[in-house]
Amino acid sequence: MSGRIRPGTVHCRLDELLAERGMTLTDLSKRVGLSYANLSVLKNDHGRAIRFSTLASICAALDCEVGDLLEVRDD
Q1: Inside any domain, residue 45
Q2: pLDDT per residue as tens digits for the range 31-71
Q3: Where would you tag: which of 3, 14, 57, 69 has the fewest CB atoms within 10 A of its CB?
Q4: pTM recorded for the entire structure
């Protein structure tokens, strides 16, 4: 064993947060000024990177913290 830490995967909880708030992806898209397609990529865990400003906008629109939106899961 090499002793290396095995990273988990980052899961975006956007779908769950939208459901809890009774919002749609279209609603969020209009509020934060991002395309539906880009938000869909995040929602479906296909995003590879996200700008801090985008993250802050999403969290402000959903009234949540970054840790509410993103979580690390063991593989």
Answers
A1: yes
A2: 999 999 999 999 999 999 999 999 999 999 999 999 999 99
A3: 3
A4: 0.86
Q: How long is the chain?
A: 75
Phi first, then psi, for residue 53 (nearest 5°) are: -65, -35
In the block, residue with structure tokens 């985008």: 54
What digits encode the pLDDT tens for the residues 16-32?
A: 999 999 999 999 999 99
Instruction: Taking the CA atoms of 71, 9, 51 and 57 in sequence, report the sign of the dihedral they define.
Output: negative
Domain range spanning residue 23? 9-68
Asked if the structure places residue 49 within a domain, the reply is: yes
| Integer Cα distance of 34 and 54 in angstroms | 8
Is the Cβ–Cβ distance between 32 and 14 less than 8 Å?
no
| Six token digits for residue 50 | 């996200």
- Looking at residue 73, its amino acid is R
Q: Cβ–Cβ contacts within 10 Å for residue 11, how many?
A: 13
